[in-house]
């Protein structure tokens, strides 16, 4: 797959509420993913997309015969404009929003302007197309989240599906992945994605490229990839583009 030249904001019909793993549904638009985990006690939304994604969420909920009131929690892999777009609107509906404790401050204060490194990457056509697609869906219009619950490494969250928190910093300081051990489903956020956003090519799961220009800390990204590799065989649901199934231990030598 390559990022097309003229990405339109659109709903990828086939990915509006598709069951991508047991009891897990993908909501995807312009390459950015949200997921719904179905538990006995309602739904958990993993990541909150972009501000224009409310229709996508509604369409996905409809497809699985649910509605907003069935969502009992929003859990965020990290605080970036393309992962928090619906967080504050859903919080206003009374749905608690969860972030890692290292992301709390920025969640509450808002993201502000992008770092200078972001602009230094703008000579790359594929990167520009990626960013333009996100902007079409409202990147930059996201609101700070007025109130958040926080979690820490290793915590099993008391939300539908009971995902376990794996702290995977690097792309952002408070970045986390979520793990469902029984079904071996890994919500990797942007710790491992299946798209090289610098070239637009599909890749095996890898940390977001762009080094420290685009990420918080490249070395931490690599450590986090090795940490996730200790999980071995997974169904990996990334923050962007397509899921992947396989043994992460074959891609990265697991951390000691
Ligand atoms: Zn992202």
TrEMBL record:
InterPro entries: Metallo-B-lactamas, NDM-1-like, RibonucZ/Hydroxyglut_hydro
SUPFAM superfamilies assigned: Metallo-hydrolase/oxidoreductase (SSF56281)
Pfam families: Lactamase_B
Residues annotated as domain Metallo-beta-lactamase: 31-240
Protein name, as recorded: Beta-lactamase domain protein
Organism: Haloterrigena turkmenica (strain ATCC 51198 / DSM 5511 / JCM 9101 / NCIMB 13204 / VKM B-1734 / 4k) (Halococcus turkmenicus)
Lineage, uppermost ranks: Archaea, Methanobacteriati, Methanobacteriota, Stenosarchaea group, Halobacteria
